[in-house]
């Protein structure tokens, strides 16, 4: 599935003047430039990243990959031959080792065919991935965004997106899940791209949304929902 990221940028800038300010400062969307790991490796990395800082997750995942030398590419068959203590020594918790094993078993038994996920629609991919122990909606959505490059995914439970929306739109309180989903309606069918810019906005100087800009976003969200 190919996404025209230039078109997505232009569309979002027309739809949301606040987000347009971020887009102008950040420049082209970096989603297409993110390396696409092999499917099993990408999911293992997502499991490693759960509830950890980026730095900590990267360190642990690097140690984990080193167990699969010389190529350092985790695969389900080799993972199942490793002892739990060996995996845990890389930094994985006991529960995450269980998650990795369940994933590996499902793949080796062809109950989860990772190479065919790209042929499925978003809802079906979410259904298949969340059947794996330890893979919740957030992890599956991150896989859809970064590995499958789906253009209209919005991980509403991501704390970074919550913080970015509050900061960017000048909200007094963190937006609720319902409020954030309402705001994101204005960004369809490119919510993945909007999410990427929201994450990037956290590294920018504070951008204050004017009351008129906040009204534009809200009114567009309402119109989209009623369509």
The total count of helices amounts to: 13
* Share of β-strand residues: under 5%
Share of helix, binned: 55-70%
> How far from one another are the termini?
25 Å
The mean pLDDT is: 91
Radius of gyration: 19 Å
Low-confidence stretches: 218-227
Main pleated-sheet profile? none
Description of the structure:
- This protein has 227 residues and is an all-alpha fold.
- The chain has two domains: 5-32 and 154-226, Endonuclease Iii, domain 2, CATH 1.10.1670.40; 39-146, Hypothetical protein, domain 2 (Endonuclease III, domain 1), CATH 1.10.340.
- The protein is 59% helix and 0% strand.
- The longest helix has 16 residues, at 211-226.
- 30% of the residues are buried.
In short:
This protein has about 230 residues and is mainly α.
Record keyword descriptors for this entry:
disordered C terminus; about 60% helix; Endonuclease III, domain 1; about 230 residues; mainly alpha; 2 domains; single chain; Endonuclease Iii, domain 2; 13 helices; about 0% strand
Topology:
Layout: H1 5-15, H2 17-26, H3 39-49, H4 54-65, H5 76-80, H6 84-89, H7 94-108, H8 122-129, H9 137-146, H10 159-168, H11 177-184, H12 191-201, H13 211-226
Helix pairs in contact: 1-2, 2-12, 3-4, 3-7, 3-9, 8-9, 10-12
